[in-house]
Amino acid sequence: MSAVGTMLRDLESTIQRGSGHERAEILARLTDLFLATAIHMDEEQVGVFDVVIGRLSRVIELHARIELAERLASIPNAPNGVIHQLALDEIAVARPVLIQSPRLSDQDLVAISAAKGRDHMLAITERPNLGEPVTDFLILRGGRVVTHAVASNQTARFSRHGMGVLVMRAVQDDALQATLGMRRDIPAELSEQLIRAAKNSARKRLNESLALALVDEIDDAVERGAEALVADGQMPSELGPISAALTEIKELNEAGQLDEAKVRALAQSGATEHATCALAVLAQLSLPAAEQIILGSDREAVLLVARGLGWSWETTAALISLRKDLGKSEAAIERARDSFRNLAQSTAQRVLGFLRMRDARP
After folding, report:
1. 310: left (phi over 0), alpha (psi -120 to 50) or beta
2. 96 within 8 A of 90, measured Cβ to Cβ
3. Crossing angle for the helix pair 20-37 and 43-57, nearest 10 degrees?
4. Mind listing the pLDDT tens digit for each residue in 4-25?
5. Terminus-to-terminus CA distance in the chain, angstroms?
6. pTM of this prediction?
7. Domain residue limits, the chain
8. CA angle at 289 for the pair 178 and 346, rounded to the nearest 5°
9. What b/e string do you get for 185-203 counting C-beta neighbours within 10 Å, with b at 16 or more?
10. Radius of gyration over alpha carbons of the chain, in Å?
11. Which region among 78-87, 134-143, 298-307, 321-330 has the lowest average model confidence (pLDDT)?
């Protein structure tokens, strides 16, 4: 531990007068030393590092805290105080610790979820072997996206009450039904409820499918009649704006010219109909679903879908600018950018999958 003593002598002056680079450098040296000797340390020795690293980590920049969290996250005897400090930091720092650190108990995870909110909850849902107190809390307080995420964690454990709530919500949520259908830990009586809900949903989708088939037949008849009238010179052949836009977008896609850059250019030019149709085609969603994502009441939907597609913030911001209620506010754009950057792509992809499942037609 003599190397630690040497660093301790330099630490106070580094904190008081050192630059951000100098602070990050001494933190990296301390972390290197800890990782090299951690396997041989008892809790008292780890406690020395806990105090020193914990104090230094409070005065370093974001990128250095992210690196520290990534290095300590999987260490079984990582400094306990530092781990808890990092877990309560902003999500870019907290995520690796929340997903991996064995230092965090179920009680810790519940407290962090209550204190920090959805982004931290979503990171926790990726953690292996979640305990019942944690899943109960996430289901109760996490909202729909968090509920879907924790339900898809195959190693998570659920209480009888927690699983009952999931099954009850699945009655009105086809995507959650599909997620729960992949699990093997649902009690028999709840499985029966889930099967009944799935049958009712299947029956509803069948009825919708028959209705849609009838609508398609009517549309075909109208189109044939319209074509005949156009041929006779009795009416113009122009399509409505959204139909014309969808036709153009499909042609671009078939020609291999539809991609993220094209979506961004369309949105930046204010071509709302074309951008909406392009999102629908590239995200494999229906046009009404794409319209809801861009223009609907859920302002975070476009963030989730764009992140799930692997698109840049610039493209996402261009789509947001199409909204009348959000696109003009610099403060709202800044908040949206922070949410977008802190959103894990794996989580966004999972949500996009849910949207596709809900939107799919049999």
Report:
1. left
2. no
3. 160
4. 555 556 665 566 666 778 788 8
5. 66
6. 0.55
7. 1-104, 241-359
8. 55
9. ebeeebeebbeebbeebee
10. 26
11. 321-330
